[in-house]
Design goal:
Structural class: alpha/beta
Largest sheet: 8 strands, parallel, barrel
Order of helices and strands: EEEEEEHEHEHHEHEEEEEHEHEHH
Number of helices: 9
Strand order of the largest sheet: 3-4-7-8-9-10-15-16
Shape: globular
Amino acid sequence: MTNIDSNSNRLEVDIAGIKFKNPVIGASGTFGFGREYSNYIDLNKLGGISVKGLTIKPRKGNKPPRIAETPAGILNSIGLQNPGVEVFIKEELPFLKKFNTVIIANIAGNVIEEYCELAEILSDTDIDAFELNVSCPNVKEGCVAFGNTVEGISEITKQVRKYCKKPLIVKLTPSVMDIKEIALAAEANGADAVSLINTILGMVIDIHKKRPVLANNFGGLSGPAVKPIAVRMTYEVSQTVKIPVIGMGGISSGDDAVEFMLAGAHAVMVGTWNFVNPNACIEVIEGIEKYLERYNYCSIYDIIGKLELNG
């Protein structure tokens, strides 16, 4: 057990040199730019916010319907709808900087040059870190096309690293044969941390219309259904790389978050459950705190990677 002064913040965690007051981050794609949630929760209490995926130009996203409920989560095909990086810098970032929380810019593009341009532009702003989106399955070009091979993720991480002046988190797709080798490739080419998992491609069919529910036919599955897969991959990656791992996928409670942290995650992102319960992130923070109290741990580091496998 770590011996830490009782007045210190035992939830504080360091990722790539950035101090997070606690390990709970609003996940990109679900938390927007925080405006809607600021009506329900105090954003100052969050460890961080990973904003909606940003592209160079504004994107309308895919045609509706774009979201379908499933028995244990949702299927989405938003298609990276966002106002573009200029609007983010002028309108959304000043709003976010009113709050005492870490701001992570999730960036996406069709070609590597667009990622590099975004990294160069945003490096001169007040964001705290980047999340490289090479794992969104809901666009026809870019994103997961870079993230599902060792060669692809190596090249894009190496190129973006040249323009990125702030910590670089690479968000991994679960749609690969071996996520460990993908994580290693990101680490070897300049990633300061990795986050996982993005959604898993799925389909929901309207049996009466005999058509897929989503206009795009397929979408990314998230929510409780994917949690066991995400926990397993978080464990595998944390055992493989030396850089910090941020886990996500189906987290709806403090206990869920503790699972990820025992598996090796330094922090967690909460996504789909924000739609069910706008107070989800706050409740996850409180749940982690209660777990530390229950077992008399002095620091969040007392549980990170402390999983003991069965013999």
